[in-house]
Amino acid sequence: MNTLSENVLSGIDYASISRKNRSRDIIFASLGIFVLFIAITTLVALFLDLAMRGAPRLADPDFYTSFPSRRPLDAGILSAWVGTIMVMVVTAVVAVPLGVAAGLYLEEYAKKNWFTDVIEINVSNLAGVPSIVYGLLALGLFVQTFGMGETVLVAGLVLALLILPIIIVSTREAIRSIPSELREAAYGLGANQWQTMSMYIIPAAKPGIITGAIVGLSRAIGETAPIITIGALSFIAFLPQSPITGDFPFISFEWLNSGFTVMPIQMFGWVSRPQADFQITAAAAGVVLIIMTLAMNALAIYIRYRARKS
Amino acid sequence: MSANEMAENRIGQPAKMRAQSERPSETREHWYLEPEGTLRARVSNLKFWYGDGTQAIDDVSMPLVDKQVTALIGPSGCGKSTFLRCFNRMHDLYQGVKYSGSIKLLPEDENLIDLDPNIVRMRVGMVFQKPNPFPKSIYENVIAGLKIRGISKRGVLDEIVETSLRQAALWDEVKDRLDQPALSMSGGQQQRLCIARALAVQPEILLLDEPTSALDPIATAKIEDLINQLSGKVTVLIVTHNMQQAARISNYTSYMYLGKLIEYNETDSLFTRPMCQRTEDYITGRFG
To answer: CA of B203 to nearest chain A CA: how many angstroms apart?
Structure first.
């Protein structure tokens, strides 16, 4: 057997193998750079195009502080960005605790059997359901059956449903990535399951969980279809009531039941107008929306980076 | 051969005398010394199955002498770590495991297989193969077990931190940087911190699962010194793949093979006059 393998190896030209491998590396790397270049150029071109078209409105400070108007040059995004923030608050408050709890339960508490397998497959399936289907669900359930109306609360709830699978999956992955040594160290000291979770596992998984939540929210911020389905308005010349009031108890939840619009809807409304000047307004709103999304993604990256450093 | 038969083999004979007169025999499958001195635990006919149905421990019986160091040796896959992890019910974290037989804690005479695993782990401490301090400060690591037990008085904690770190021969190295992250320490220091963390809650039994296998020789020597110092104070059960280490630090040694206990003896006797052929083959390097 020894002589055989010596014969097999004796005639090989190592230099040519190495050369061939190196040229493959170069081909693959150039291909990668090319593809990356196309992707980034498209994104930058899109953004610059929007920014240039929207520049006249973007430069006008009134754009951010005015309500929409019939005259394109007076139209602003005040009600849209306020609406977006309010809807996002509802979405975060509903989706994050639910998603994290569900992920934690599935990963750490649930017994592994066919039932949890079915749940697991369906959670992944839910992540792939088109968003308009969530819109129809919300329209039938929240708006018509429960009679909740076309409100901030309903919009927040439907977006929360939409991003729940994303948060569940990312929570599970964050928890699964905690080395079992940490878990065994905690249990080995006599910690019970809750102590192990709350004192060691969740703090260690926190960066991953927060990142997942932000990625989910940055998807929700640009969603249009489900919000249109539940009947959001694209022309709103008032703000929901402020959550902070001058009278006791100083906090009001009236804004939850208020009509609203959000950035993508506002944009959609303007794009469908015939006047050319509204295209400028729409482009400007698009730039603001992209910046909002990028800012949230940047926050997610920063949290991950800081967690890796410590 | 069952534990009862094994017990009969030695009735009426002082173990040491017989150990000198008898030589390894081709036919002797098991040998088991009944130690003098107080016992902290006694394992009887312990069997253990993993969730996939594989039996990893097959009818093991052995005593654990109070405040002495007992080493478990054997080739990889012989079940020594599995056996060790039965003592704090670590296996119960995973689904489908099964035990039979008993590990009786003495003198309470409680079978820890029947107790709540959580309570068992409060009483039996463990140090793992790979140092696994929490990603927190050195101080926080030592008091972790106390926090879990609801002890939070600063003065008490400070005192326990110092005594535990002294016991683990780490105090002089870290006393000025207790608030530093534990992960900034060297691997050997981390492992001694893990020992201090386990000692801080005064375990009835301290389990060490190959505590030096991830460490360099100098760090290993420090841990061995530390284990020698624990002898006489704490009941220690240690798994090691290193026979010289077992010889250096333990008072009693068990040789395991294929999930069975082959020989349990005083360490000196086991290494100089093994009673079973298979033990002799292993310690002389003919096998394993």
So the answer is: 10
Residue B265 counted as domain residue: yes
Is B90 in contact with A112 (Cβ distance < 8 A)?
Answer: no
Q: Is the ipTM of this structure higher than 0.90?
A: no
Q: Is residue B149 part of a domain?
A: no
Does position A302 have pLDDT exceeding 60, yes or no? yes
CA distances (Å), origin B243, targets A61, A234, A273, B271, B283: 79, 78, 84, 9, 7
- Rounded to 10 degrees, the C-alpha dihedral A158/A163/A168/A170 comes to -170
Q: Give the residue among B12, B16, B8, B89 at the shortest CA–CA distance from B48.
A: B89
Percent of chain A residues topping a pLDDT of 70: 92
Per-residue pLDDT averaged across A182-201, rounded? 93
Q: Specify if B148 maps to a domain.
A: no
- For domain A62-309, give the fold: MetI-like fold (1.10.3720)
**What's the pLDDT score for residue A250?**
65
The first and second tokens of residue A82, run together, are 């306020």
CB contact under 8 A, B133 and A185: yes
Note whether A200 contacts B: Cβ–Cβ < 8 A. yes
Q: Specify which residues B266 forms β-bridges with.
A: B252
Nearest to B135 among A183, A191, A204 (CB): A204
Interface test mutation site (partner B, options A189, A198, A199, A200, max chain B beta carbons within 10 A): A189
Q: What is the pTM of this model?
A: 0.79
Cα angle: A43, vertex A88, A129; to 5 degrees? 70
Q: Is residue B151 part of a domain?
A: no
Its domain, for residue B224, covers: 30-130+205-283
